[in-house]
Amino acid sequence: NKMSETEEVVEEEAQFMTNIAAPKIPDGEKVDFDDIHRKRQEKDLSELQSLIEAHFVQRKKEEEELIALVNRIEKRRAERAEQQRVRTEREKERQARQAEEKERKELEEQQKKMNDDAKKKKALTNMTQQFSAGQKTKRGGKKQTEREKKKKILADRKKPLTVDHLNEDKLKEKANEMWQWLMGLEAEKFDLSEKLKRQKYDCCRRITSIHFVKFSVPKVAARARWAAA
């Protein structure tokens, strides 16, 4: 670079010197060639110094422009980085809001399902309790009716046995009558026993059905919701 700058200066000096006209020598006067040569050198040196100064001024200006350009580039790069950072932060905030909204909706749906399940369970429990209370009332009324019926039957059947005035044939007839009556009681006892067994079986089956409905309906509903989801 230094060599090229020197060559440029020499070339500019050569071009400059070619334009210089030869000094006129007055007639009849003594010419001082040393003075002319010295003045010419001083003039050339002054012009060369001016060219060098102009060159460095231009170079300084170019360097300043280059520095300003670099500063503008760095500033623009920093602005773009800041804009990108702001966009990234906004995107993160947006995604966070979406995640919070999604979680809130899921919690609301879960809470709603839990409330619906609790309401259904409560309604089923109330129905079961009402059914059980009705069955108890029916059984209580039925027991009272059966008890009164048995008392009446026993009162009707509990007759005084008077055989002192009967002869042998009448006694045999009375004994046969009592035997038939006893057989009738045994048959009635058997029928009542079978009826009681049947009632117990029906009660057990109803209780089993109630428990099945109570515990299976929520599971079926849960499966249906899962399948729908």
UniProtKB/TrEMBL annotation:
It comes from Labrus bergylta (ballan wrasse). One of its GO terms (biological process) is sarcomere organization. Pfam families: Troponin. Residues 77-119, 143-160 have a biased composition (Basic and acidic residues). Signal peptide: none annotated. Keywords: Muscle protein. InterPro entries: TNNT, Troponin, Troponin_sf. It comes from the Eukaryota. GO terms for molecular function: tropomyosin binding; troponin C binding; troponin I binding. One of its GO terms (cellular component) is troponin complex. Troponin T is the tropomyosin-binding subunit of troponin, the thin filament regulatory complex which confers calcium-sensitivity to striated muscle actomyosin ATPase activity. Belongs to the troponin T family. Residues 77-160 are annotated as: Disordered. This is Troponin T, cardiac muscle isoforms-like.
